[in-house]
Structures are given as C-alpha cells and as structure tokens.
From TrEMBL, chains A, B:
This is Farnesyl diphosphate synthase. Belongs to the FPP/GGPP synthase family. It catalyses: isopentenyl diphosphate + (2E)-geranyl diphosphate = (2E,6E)-farnesyl diphosphate + diphosphate. Its cofactor is Mg(2+). Keywords: Isoprene biosynthesis, Magnesium, Metal-binding, Transferase. InterPro entries: Isoprenoid_synthase_dom_sf, Polyprenyl_synt, Polyprenyl_synt_CS. Its EC number is 2.5.1.10. GO terms for molecular function: (2E,6E)-farnesyl diphosphate synthase activity; metal ion binding. Coiled coil: none annotated. It comes from Candidatus Lactobacillus pullistercoris. Transmembrane segments: none annotated.
Length: 289, 289
C-alpha cells in the first residue's frame, strides 16, 4: 500500500465521523442539521481536508481533534459551494455523487439555506480550532469574490458566450478561481498553521497551485471519460450546455498531455520535503489518463 | 441635536464612503463588484455598523480605518442576508429600500452569487482588521445555523403553518435568530474588541439583547403602520403570506406596549455606562409608537 493510500485509509473515517457527529451535536435545529448532513455525508473524497492534514503531516505536525475540526471546516465550505452550484438558477443539476441534489431532495429554499448555513459554520470551525485570524483570512479570500465565487461568476457570465471559447486566459482564470483557489488554500492554511519555514511555504504553495490546476483539467476529463454512473453525476453536460473550459479549448488529447506534464512538474515542487503522502495525491489523476 | 444624531451624522458618511471605495478597489472583477455594490449602497440605515462603533465609543476606544473596516464587514454580511431573503425561492420580493431587488435587477444566479460573495468578504474584513479569531467566531456563530440562517429556516418551515401561529416560544425564537442574533453580535464584537470589563460586557449584552428583540417588533410594526412608499419595500405582506410573527400573535396594540416596555427596560441596562449615544438608538422605534 502506498503512503498516500495508508494515510487516506487512516484519516478518511476520522473526518467522516467528526463531520457526522458534530453536525448532529452542534446544530441545534434537527431539521436543518439533517439537510446539511445529507449533502456533507453524501460520500465525497474529502480531498481538501485530506490535503490539509497531509500538509500538516509533511511538516511534522501532530493531528488531533483540533486539526480535524479545521480540516472539516474546509469540507463544510466545499459542500456549501456544491449545493449552491447545483441550484436551478446555477447549473441546475438533479444528481450529485449519485444522490438527488439538495434542492431536489429538500426544496430550493432549504438548499439555499443549507449552503448559507454550511459556509459560516465552516469558517466558525476554522476560527474556533485554529484561534488564527490569518487562517480565516486565507480561507475566506479563497472563496469570496476574488476566489471561488468570482470564478462561478465568470462561469455563468461566459456560458454560451462564443467570444470566450478561445480565450485561454479567461478560461484559465475562471477554472483557477472556481477550483484551484480553495485547494491551494487548504495547503496554505496547513503551512501557516504548522509554522512552515519560508522555503517550505514556497514549495508547498507551488505544489498546491499545480495540484489545483491539474484538478480542474482532471474534473473536465471526468465529464467526458466517465459514464454518469461512474461519476455519480450527470456527465457529458459541459459541451451540451455551452460551458467553456480547458477541455473545450484544447480537446481531450491535448488536455491529457497538459495534465501529464503538470503532474510531473508538480511532483518536482515537493523535492526536499518529507512529502511522500502529498505526492500520492497526484495518483488520483491516473484514472483519466 | 442629540448625541445619537450627532454620532450618526458623523459616522454614516464615513461608513458609506468606505463601503463604496473598498468594494470598487478590492473586488477585482468589475461586474460582480457592481452587483455587490448595488445592494450594499442601496441606502440602508447602517444600524449594525453604527451599533458596533457606538459601543466602541461608549468604551472609550478610538475609531480609525481599522474599526471602520470591521463595522463595514458586518454591513456586508447583513446585505448578503437581505439579498438571499428576497430570492424567488425565499420571500420573493421585487423591491427593497425602494429599488429593484438584486435578482430582479441582475438575475437570480447573479443575486445568489452576490450574496455568496458578500458573506465571506465581510468575514474577511473582520478577520483582517481585528486580527481576532474570537471576533470571527462571534460573527459567524450569529449568522450560521444556530443564528440568522437557523431563524430563516424556522421561518420558511412555519409559513402558512397554523399550528405555529399561537406558539409564542417558536415565534420568539425564530425572530430572535433572524434579527436579534446579528444585532447582539455587533455589540458583543465591539465589547470584545475594546476589552470591556466583565461588568461592562454583561450590561452591553443585556442592552443588545433588548435592542435586538425590540427591533424585530419594530420591523413587524413597520410592515403594517407604514405605506410601502415610506418603507421602500412591499408592506402589509406578512399577513397575506401567512407569516407568523409577534404582531400576528399579539396584534398591533399589544405589540406597541411590548415595545414600549422593552425600550424602558433596555435603557436601564445601560445605567453606569458612558452610553448616551447607545441610548439614542432606541429613539429609532418612536416612529411606530
């Protein structure tokens, strides 16, 4: 078993248990707690919390309940973004991770509010466990108008806009903001929290940038390579809906070679760090290569 | 001129200028910046930022750009909540403060995203300017599932539900969460930020609780007492839409006498503090009495 697999098998259940237990215990109203937990517990890969924990691990920081709370705070924020992306006014998706999306299951007002509840709760967990305003700043910046939500806005603003379909700069920026920013923040938050040295910080952030960029290309490829049953959501949708992304820009084969070269480059960023686990995250992308 | 009026006249333009300038400067995408600013600059009373600043003032804390940023962060969060409340799936309002609501003006996806951008940006401003994880915790708790969003959920869950219309406990809780929590947090954040003594903290929080409870009764009364032209939004809507609130529970006259007694009690909480300005906030309610 690879170091990554071992780490993933060790911590994924810890993350899942924490999320399930704390959402039940700490959200007072049982109905909204259930609606929030429905999406949080829908079987995500826990990529962002695992990245946070693996970065701590690479810096020799011990992982306790405190660090798990920060990691899970990031996952709550990520889940909020999925719920709102799926809304009828946004991507209008009926399925996510093989289950009905929040608004299909509970109603649209409920889904908006579940997202609106998960975002501040995630930030609260980060603030409470880290006692660090800096970590809050990094995480909120990553998901605000100059981060994830800014990317969502560029996405809806450019859908079915032919003038954007060949604009590499626009597409790169949009994809980076939508997905890359929060992935990078997960690593950066761990580096700040664990008092990384300047050199470690630079290497980790370069790794995170490469990993985040690669993730988006991977995610676009999943859309065409996998059947919807494998992916647990509607695939082959991007093209039908006039979405612009790296894949529509480069085509499948060039996207794949771009991904291969990004993986190689991103591995190099980790040289000199104790980063066997972090390196293993890049294996995730093999399934579309 | 009362001390409150003087304070309000002094700081309202400072708050407005800060909001307008920073949203233009610090949000990179000019279109989403414009959509956010449209709602933020729609002419609110700036009640929550003024409460934050007036509490600092009562504790002898100097007000600089740093404190203005925290105050304005609270206003961004408040504005996000208004935009999402007005959405078609929620209250479905076409007008707010005499202008088209965000989704009527810009579209539904844009309004969802403008709210989703204002919330983390507001928290970012609070974290950045205060450098205090405690302030972040208080503000996020106030707007999360155990605060404002929890209240919104109770509201949508009980609309047109006759079994709730006589349930005083349910209605009190819903109103407190929807409106009271963030008002209380605005005062509490200032008390923490200015290192209030234990005694000052207790008095200020009691004041904030009374003021927040009174605000909701006031807001319900505005709905029936004012014409929609005066209020800048649709009035007389609550009853038509099957909303349950203190007013539908008690009727107009009993709501008024409840408000009068709350004002008296809340003033008493301030005795022994240098709180002439804070006391003046209670005069706001005269217009429905």
């Amino acid at each position: 078993m690879t170091a990554f697999k071992f780490f993933q098998n060790q911590w994924t259940p810890v993350i899942n248990n924490f999320l399930e237990k704390k959402l039940a215990e700490e959200v007072e109203d049982k109905k909204i707690s259930q609606i929030m937990a429905y999406s949080v517990m829908a079987g995500g890969k826990r990529l962002r919390p695992l990245l946070f924990l693996a970065t701590l691990n690479s810096l020799g920081k011990e992982i306790t309940d405190t660090e798990i709370r920060i990691a899970c705070g990031i996952e709550l924020i990520h889940t909020y973004s999925l719920i709102h992306d799926d809304l009828p006014a946004m991507d209008n998706d009926d399925y996510r991770r093989g289950k009905l999306t929040s608004h299909k299951k509970w109603g649209e007002a409920e889904a908006i509010l579940a997202g609106d509840a998960l975002l501040p709760l995630g930030i609260e967990w980060i603030a409470q466990a880290s006692d660090s305003a800096k970590l809050v700043k990094v995480s909120t910046e990553a998901v605000g108008p100059n981060g994830m939500v800014g990317g969502q806005y560029l996405d809806i603003d450019s859908t079915n806009n032919a003038s954007v379909s060949n604009d590499e700069q626009y597409i790169n920026k949009m994809e980076w903001l939508k997905t890359g920013c929060l992935i990078k923040a997960s690593v950066e938050m761990a580096a700040i929290y664990a008092d990384a040295t300047q050199i470690e910080m630079v290497k980790l952030i370069d790794f995170a940038k490469g990993f985040g960029r690669a993730y988006q290309i991977y995610d676009d490829l999943v859309d065409v390579v996998e059947s919807s049953e494998q992916a647990g959501k509607a695939t082959h949708k991007d093209k039908e809906e006039g979405k612009n992304n790296t894949l529509t820009l480069l085509g499948i084969e060039k996207s794949r070679s771009e991904l291969v070269s990004l993986i190689k480059q991103t591995k190099q960023n980790l040289s000199g760090l104790n980063a066997e686990v972090l390196e293993g995250f890049l294996d995730l992308y093999q399934k579309v290569l």
